[in-house]
Design a protein that fits this description.
The chain has about 240 residues and is an alpha/beta fold. It has a single domain, classed as Aldolase class I (TIM Barrel). The chain is built from eleven helices and twelve strands. An eight-stranded parallel β-barrel has the order 1-4-5-6-7-10-11-12, surrounded by seven helices. A hairpin with a 4-residue loop joins strand 8 (about 135) and strand 9. The protein is globular. About 50% of the residues are buried.
Length: about 240
């Protein structure tokens, strides 16, 4: 199981939200590129970047910061937040991004996802953020009518190969991931599922392995020091 260290960008800085709330935000650094280099130096194999400003505003905001991250590390980087058009995808790829994560737009426009997958194949990842099992959109501010697993199957039928599945209720809490939700998703789709939300210690990492997920995103636990990235990577590979 791969460990994805997370860098969430707001106003050009590294931050973490609590349960997706923008009014409950902690700043952990002023230089996201330096943070990416730190995680790479500790063994990070893939960096996960979220443009929180982009998610709120519906278009890419932190392109310069994201480009600097890509130029600073030798490992692949995936990013999401505000991806609404083919031009947005192309702009992110032009920054050096390896995979682009589409969230809100995927819920409202499956045809857009189909066009993106037809053109960029496995470089397109779908972000499924769930509140009580229902897909949330627009920076987690609204909830759609789609069930998470139902929506994932729809994306799989289009040709999507990877999803990032976030449980909003646990995100940023360090209280533990929603294991049953992650297991249910992994068992019901043939795609790679990257789990996100709630990871607070090494035992949480170990508990996710038998759920069948391809990887796990960890952010706040790394920044607070409750997880050591090297130890987490070893835990993900040892079991």
């Amino acid at each position: 199981m791969r460990i994805y260290p997370a860098i969430d960008i707001k106003d050009g800085r590294c931050v973490r939200l609590y349960k997706g709330r923008f009014d409950d935000m902690t700043v952990y650094g002023s230089d996201p590129a330096e943070m990416a280099k730190k995680w790479e130096a500790q063994g990070g194999e893939y960096i996960h970047v979220v443009d929180l400003d982009g998610a709120l505003k519906g278009h890419g905001v932190n392109a310069d910061v994201i480009k600097k991250i890509c130029e600073s590390v030798n490992v692949p980087v995936q990013t999401g937040g505000g991806i609404r058009t083919m031009a947005d995808i192309e702009a992110k790829l032009a920054c050096g991004i390896d995979r682009v994560i589409i969230g809100t737009k995927a819920v409202s426009d499956a045809d857009f996802v189909k066009r993106a997958v037809d053109k960029y194949a496995e470089r397109i990842v779908i972000g499924i953020d769930a509140k009580d099992g229902m897909v949330a959109v627009e920076g987690w501010e609204k909830t759609s009518d789609f069930g998470a697993v139902e929506f994932a199957k729809k994306m799989e039928s289009i040709g999507v190969r990877t999803i990032v599945y976030t449980d909003i209720a646990t995100d940023g809490t360090l209280a533990g991931p929603n294991l049953s939700a992650m297991r249910e998703m992994a068992e019901n789709v043939g795609m790679d599922v990257i789990a996100s939300g709630g990871v607070g210690n090494i035992e949480h990492i170990k508990a996710l392995v038998p759920c069948g997920v391809e990887g796990v995103i960890t952010g706040k636990a790394l920044y607070t020091g409750s997880i050591d990235l090297k130890e987490a990577i070893k835990a993900g590979k040892d079991i």
